[in-house]
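ARCHIVE CARD
CATEGORY: sequence design from structure
SOURCE FIELD: tokenized fold
FIELD CONTENT:
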């Protein structure tokens, strides 16, 4: 397996970096402070073909593949990982419909989702220890030729701004996915949750009260493995966000170390500083190799869950450490949210630290340690 990007993949990554420089960098501080969802950017993201990369080519859309998707995600995450979160959650819905949806679902949703006319959100998590367990569990009860949904989904990203939700509800055979339009009667969005990072990506709970859906809204039949596969794919995409943040952090810390003078020399000459920088670069590089490997397996249609779990486990340990090391290089300035008058340029590491917590701590498959162990002993 090669880890070299093709020319089209390299071009996509470059376009994503240019997009971030032009459209994200000037506003990302305001997005974070104001928890602003930049609705106007969705059309621009679509115009750059960033919303349909995970959808197969036969659907009449870009179809560049999952490797291209993570390349774009990590490039955008160097600037504004919250926008990458918006794209990732949208892309998971499009991927599910493209791979497990019926033809009517593909025709109704995919063209609009790729053009940015419909934004997607995936709803899996619940208040209980696992979906289906707890007093507010979302249950799907058969009724006539469809189902009635009652219950709550928690921590749904893109909630309130999404036009279509891929909702996983519990039926007798396990978790089943349903495509539910945002305007469906009985579906309501709770207050926006205050999150420490990724603040331009809105998060809220979804409440279902006697929501009637037809059998044509079911995605993937009644296969309970669909939700787990999507979470594993999402874990790889979120890992790409983490690496993008880490790469931006080490770049900023390295430049700071060149400018910051102590003992009549830039601190970049100090071995302790060089060691911290080297460890961040090494950790992000090793993580990226694992991400690329898992991404290629996903793109090839090969088993990938164990590799995705390894990536999640690795960055669960080293993701935040990379930002802590970068902040340590910048010292007191590294934890500043507002730039002091005597400092030129931005101080983004505090925001990055808050953002990286969101990419490493959320949406882990419940059994990801088991998958890693199983892969090791097989």
């Amino acid at each position: 397996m090669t880890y070299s990007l093709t020319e089209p993949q390299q071009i996509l990554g470059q376009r994503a970096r240019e997009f971030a420089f032009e459209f994200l960098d000037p506003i990302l501080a305001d997005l974070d402070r104001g928890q602003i969802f930049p609705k106007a950017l969705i059309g621009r993201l679509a115009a750059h073909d960033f919303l349909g990369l995970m959808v197969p080519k036969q659907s009449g859309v870009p179809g560049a593949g999952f490797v291209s998707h993570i390349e774009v995600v990590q490039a955008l995450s160097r600037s504004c990982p919250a926008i990458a979160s918006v794209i990732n959650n949208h892309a998971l819905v499009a991927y599910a419909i493209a791979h497990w949806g019926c033809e009517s679902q593909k025709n109704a949703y995919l063209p609009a989702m790729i053009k940015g006319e419909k934004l997607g959100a995936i709803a899996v998590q619940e208040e209980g220890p696992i979906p289906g367990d707890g007093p507010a569990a979302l249950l799907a009860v058969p009724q006539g030729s469809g189902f009635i949904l009652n219950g709550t989904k928690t921590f749904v990203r893109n909630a309130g701004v999404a036009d279509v939700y891929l909702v996983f509800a519990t039926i007798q055979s396990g978790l089943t996915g349903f495509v539910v339009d945002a305007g469906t009667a009985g579906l309501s969005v709770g207050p926006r949750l205050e999150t420490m990072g990724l603040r331009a990506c809105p998060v809220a709970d979804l409440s279902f009260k006697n929501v009637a859906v037809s059998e044509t809204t079911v995605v993937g039949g009644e296969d309970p493995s669909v939700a787990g596969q999507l979470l594993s794919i999402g874990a790889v995409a979120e890992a790409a966000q983490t690496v993008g943040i880490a790469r931006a952090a080490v770049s900023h810390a390295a430049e700071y170390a060149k400018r910051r003078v102590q003992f009549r020399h830039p601190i970049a000459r100090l071995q302790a500083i060089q060691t911290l920088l080297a460890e961040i670069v090494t950790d992000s590089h090793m993580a990226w190799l694992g991400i690329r490997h898992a991404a290629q397996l996903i793109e090839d249609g090969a088993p990938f869950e164990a590799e995705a779990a390894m990536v999640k486990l690795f960055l669960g340990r080293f993701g935040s450490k990379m930002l802590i090391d970068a902040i340590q290089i910048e010292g007191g300035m590294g934890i500043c949210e507002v730039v002091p008058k005597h400092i030129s340029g931005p101080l983004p590491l505090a925001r990055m630290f808050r953002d990286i917590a969101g990419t490493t701590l959320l949406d882990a498959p419940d059994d990801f340690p088991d998958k890693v162990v199983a892969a090791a002993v097989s």
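CARD ANNOTATION: The longest helix spans residues 225-259. The chain has three domains: 7-119, 121-219, 226-376.
SHELF: design records, drawer C
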